[in-house]
Amino acid sequence: MAIPDYKLSAILNGHSMDVRSVAATKEFCILSASRDRTAKLWHPEGVKEFVNVITYKGHRNFVSCICWVPPCVSFPEGLVVTGSNDNTILGYNLQDGTVLLTLEGHENAVCSVSPGRDSGMLLSSSWDSTAKLWNINNPQSSPISFNGHQAAVWAVVELCDGTIATASADKSIKLWKKNHELKTTLTGHTDCVRDLAVASTETFLSCSNDASIKLWSNNGQCLNTFYGHSNYIYSISINPAVQNGFATSGEGGSVRLWTGGDCIREIRLPVQSVWSVTCLENGDIVTGSSDGVIRVFTKDPARFADEETIKNFEEEVEKIQASSEQEIGGFKVSELPGPEVLLEPGKSDGQTKLVRRGAAVKCYSWSVAENTWNEIGDVMGANPASEGKTMYQGKEYDFVFSVDIKDGAPPIKLPYNKTEDPWAAAQAFIHRNDLPQGYLEQVANFIITNAKLDSLPASSNGFADPLTGESRYVPGSGTAVPGLPPPSSRDPFTGSGAYVTQAAISTEKPFVPHDSYIRFDQANIKAIYDKLREFNSKVGDGHNPLSDEQLQNVVKLGELNSTHDPETLTLLKKMLEWPKEILFPVLDVTRLAVRNKQINAQMFDTKYGPNFVQYLLTLLAPDNLPANIMLTMRVLVNAFSDLPGEMLVLAARETVMHSLICLTQLNNNTQVAACSLLLNLSVALAQQPDSVELAECVLQLLNKITDNEAYFRGLVALGTLLAESPNKIQLQSKIVSHTQIHSRLKRDSTTNPSDATLRKISICSQQVLRLL
Fold it and tell me: What are the tens digits of pLDDT across the range 694-729?
C-alpha cells in the first residue's frame, strides 16, 4: 500500500496565544479556541486558503475547548460551543457570533465539550473532576453530573451504544449510563488520560501522557495498545477519509497518522506542543499549537502550499529538530525518558536508567533492598558552544568540584562559577546537602583555593542566603544573636531567623531561577508529643490507645537522621486514619518523617505510596480543617526530600494544582505552605510542558496572597518557570495578561523598602521583569 505524502497546505494566523483546540464544522469550516480568550471560525476560500470570518468573544479567561453542535429544536442553525477556564460554557450563533447560550455549573476550568448522539444534548468535562450532560433544548434544566474521578476529567464522549466515557488525570477511564450510574472503571494507562475518540460502533480510542494509545471495546475490554509517540499525547481524532484511520498530536511538535494501529506517517511542526488535532471530511489534518498558529496538512497535491511556503516551514522544523538533538554526556536529551519512568520498579538490583530532567541527564540505580531508584549522579558532558564550561544539572559552570565529606561515601558535586560569591556558593552547597553549618568556612576556603580566585572575600557573620537574603545562625558563635527572632517565628524556608541589613541583599545573587527544593524543618517536638498524647485518649472513645512509649517512638520518626523499626512506621500509618478533627499533629510528625530517606522510600513506595498521596489530596478539600490543609501541603513539600516522594507528588501534579486553585480562605501559614509547594513544583517542572499550566496556577494563587513571605515564594516560583520554560513567549504573554500581578511587579520593582521580606520582593520583581 502506497503511503500518502502529507504536506503543508495552509497556515492560519490570527490568534495571539496558544491554540488549545481545533474542530471541524459543516462545509469544511474550521473552528479554533485559544488562550487569547477568543474562538474563531475559518471559512475555506478557493482551493486551499482559509479566511477568519467570525471571532467569538465573551469568555473572561482562556478558551480551552470548542465543538460544533448540529441543529436541534432550540437552535435550528446549530451552535458553536466553547468551554473556558472561567468555568463557563458559551454557545454562539455560527454566522454572527452572538452569544445564544450560557451554561454555568462547573466549579473549575471546562476542558472538553462534545455533542451527544441525541439532538440537543451536550457533554462537558472539567478540572473539577466531573463531567456533565446538558439538554440545551431546555437550558434551565439541571445537567446530569458524573462524579467519581479523583482528578481533572480531560475528555468526555458518548459511545455508539449510548455509554458515556470519561478520561481523567487520575489515569483512569470510566464508563457510565446516562443516568450517571457508573458501569465500570478502566485502568491501564500509567499517566493522565488526555483524550477520547469514537473509533467504530463497537470501539473507542484513548490517548495519554504515557505516550500510548489504547483501543477499547464499548464494554471496557482493552483490545490493543499502540506506540509511536515519545512524549505526551494530547489529542486524537478519527480520519473519516481513511479506513480505520486516525491522527494524534502531542508534545515535541509531533503529529502522527495511523491506519489500523500502524503509524504510517509523522508530521513534524516547528513548535513545542501540538495541543489539538482534527481531521476534515476530505482527509486533511488541522492542528492547533503552542505558537498560536493553526496549520492544515493535505495529501492532495492540488492543495499543497506554494514551494516557498513549504520550504520556509521545513527550514523552521529543521531548526527546532537541530536544537532538540543537543547532546549532554553523549546522549540526545530529547530521546531519553522523563522522570515518569522512575514510577515503575526496577527488574534487578543495580539496574540503571538514564533520565532526562529538564536539560540535564541523570543516572539512577535500582536498589532491591530499599525498593527505590537512587540517584547516582549527573551524566556529564560539555557544550561545544561553551568551551571550558562543565554541564551540571542542566547548567554550565566554570568548575564542578568533587568534595569528599565522609570516608567510604561517594564525593558530592560542588558547582561554582567565578562570578559567584564563594561564601554564597558554600552556603548553598551546605543547605542542599544537609551538612553541618560549621562546614561553611572550610567549604568556602576550598572554593577560593581550588578556583584560584585573585582576591579573598571576607567572611561575614551577616552572610545572606542567596534565595532568602537572610542571615544564618552559626552554631558555636554564641546563643545571643542580635535581631534573631525566637524559635517560634523562625522561617521554615531556611530554618533560620531573619536578621539582615539592606546591604546584605545583593542583586548579584539572583533569586530566580531557583534550582533546589525547599522544605519545612522547624518543629516543636515536645508540643507535638503533648498534643498527640492528648488526642490519643480520644481515639475510638478510649479503646486501644497507644502507650506513651509507642507515642515517643512515633514522634522520634520526625528526627531527620533517626533510625526506626517497621512497627513504629506501621503505627504512624495507622494514626493517619485518626478522625480529621484530631489529625493535625499526626500530619506534623509525617511531614518531619518523610525527610528521612528510608521513611520517604517506605511512605511513597509503589504499594502504599499512591493510596497515601490520594489520601493527602482529599485533605486539601476546601471544607477541611485549615490546620489539616496547611500541614498536608507541608507533607507534600517535604515529600520532595527524596526521589520516591518527589515522583509521586509529580505524578499527581494535575490534582495538586487543581486543589490549590480551589482553595478560598487561606491564613498566612497556609499561604506560605501553598507557595512553597508551587515553588518545588516549579523547580521540578520548569523545563517541562507542564510549565504553562503551572504558571497559570501560580498566577491565580498570587492574586489571593496577602502574606509577604508567601508572595515572595510564589514570585520565585513564577520567575523560575519564566527563566527556564520552553514556552517562554506564552508565559510572558500570560503574566502580562494578569494585569493585577503585572502592575504589582512594576510597582514593587521601583521600591526600596527597609523591611527584609519586602526588599526581597522588590529585587525578585526586578529580576522577573527583566525576563519579560
Answer: 999 999 999 999 999 999 999 999 999 998 887 788
Q: How far apart are CA 513 and CA 729, in angstroms?
A: 17
Least confident of 124-128, 235-239, 450-454: 450-454
Question: Per-residue pLDDT averaged across 340-355, rounded?
Answer: 73
Q: How many Cα atoms are found within 13 Å in the side-chain-facing hemisphere of 701?
A: 36
List domains and CATH numbers for the chain.
228-324 (2.40.10), 513-665 (1.25.10.10), 667-771 (1.25.10.10)
Cβ within 8 Å of residue 229, ≥6 positions away:
211, 212, 248, 250, 252, 254, 256
CA dihedral 314, 316, 318, 324 (to 10 degrees): -140
pLDDT digits (tens, 9 = 90+) for 109-149: 899 999 999 999 999 999 889 999 999 999 899 999 999 99
454 — pLDDT class (breaks 50, 70, 90): low
**CA–CA distance, 712 with 710 (Å, rounded to integer):** 5
Cell of 676: 512553597
Reported for 379-388, long-range contacts at CB under 8 A and 24+ positions apart, including other chains, are 379/328, 379/329, 379/330, 379/331, 379/354, 380/328, 380/329, 381/327, 381/328, 381/329, 381/330, 381/331, 383/326, 383/328
E-strand stretches of 290-411? 294-298, 327-328, 331-332, 352-357, 360-367, 372-378, 390-392, 395-397, 399-403
| 28 burial type by CB count under 10 A (0-12 exposed, 13-18 middle, 19+ buried) | middle
Task: Say how far apart CA 232 and CA 101 lie, in whole Å.
Answer: 34
